[in-house]
Amino acid sequence: MHVVSSYMDEEISPFISSDWLFTVLRSSGKVSDVEYSPGTENPGKIFINKLEELPLTICSLNKKAMGKEVKTVGYLMKPSREEDFAKRGAFPLNPTPDGLTFVALNYELPMSWQLKEVDGILHKSTDDIIAVEMSSSSDFENKVTYTEGMEQLQRYIRCHPDCCVIDPFSNIYPVLDRLKIQQTLGGLENLNSKSCSKIRGPHFLKVVDFCEPELEDKLADAKLSLPNIVKPQVACGVADAHSMAIVFKADSYKDLNVPLPAIVQEYVDHSSTMFKFYVVGKKIFFAIKKSTPNADILIKLAEEKALKPLLFDSLKSLPVDKDNQQKSQDEDNKRIDHELVTDAANWLRKALDLTIFGFDVVIQEGTGDHVIVDVNYLPSFKEVPDEVAIPTFWEAIKEKLTGKKSTEAAILL
Description:
The protein is α/β, with parallel strands linked by helices. Helix content is about 30%, strand content about 25%. It has helices spanning about 10, 55-65, 80-85, 110-115, 150-160, 170-175, 180-185, 215-220, 295-305, 330-335, 340-350, 385-400, and strands at about 1-5, 20-25, 40, 45-50, 70-75, 100-105, 120-125, 130-135, 140-145, 200, 205, 230, 245, 260-265, 275-280, 285-290, 310-315, 355-365, 370-375, 410.
């Protein structure tokens, strides 16, 4: 393929053969935009109106050449995330061994035209959230405001219910809400009967006013003892979703600078070790990461500032106990109950009805409880080697597109 910005037949005719396809970018001064008709094709030439049409044009040509077995996946996410996935080879224009091609959907082009050319949509819709309107009622209700481009996409999907979305928008909403996730994790109790270990969500309490007079009693009823970790109820998509605090004294709540409504969550002593699990279709991966110190170390740090709340952004690092001798990964690996976490991953996959998601597990000192402290959609799974993660990523998407049911997942060590 040779792309030119303008042409004259006599100039390019000597080069037209079965080996060359000319793609001509029309000049806006020569072509009327009254009717949008990209990809106009003549023998040996294709005409496009904008350079942004080129990737989808290439995908369309690949599809014509290879037949119905090739599926085109259109994806939408913020540029930095797209770049990260693309650098790892996750979004090739040329067909993968699974017969997938990938193309970025572009808000600068008519969405209806783009979506007619793709077989499925992979999105990180939380990257396009402008605002989340929270109610103070006991039952969580949110109103998510998206960018105009994302709302245009959603309108198209509502009008075309046969359009395959890798994970429907309605399935993503619970992951936006820390209260709903906590309530969902309560269902893990049914998995604990056949294991010596216990897997659960942390104890929690929703708070709509840090100054309410009975807050201490409510915290005690919720099995919450100090210190606590306090998080906004909105889990992602807005700037302050990651503005959190660790509270050491009950009287610190009245002036606490964490967005309301908030979730007060149990702080679990976990030897500064976190297990990050990634569910990708029918497979599960995990990585072991350093985490925050136990409560006694945090208290020592806070004593220097009269036990004032420790405010932090959860996307950034918290202080780590430098004196604590980290266990080897082999020792940590022996501590985790793989069968129990596998059961929990499969249960969550069905409960959330998501194809690609992650969750974080810490092991409580003393009890050995496996506590799921966070759940997120479409994580980067950077800790998993690309040669393993990317083919699994493609396989999960292909299964979704072809309607195959994923079998029970097993952790890959």
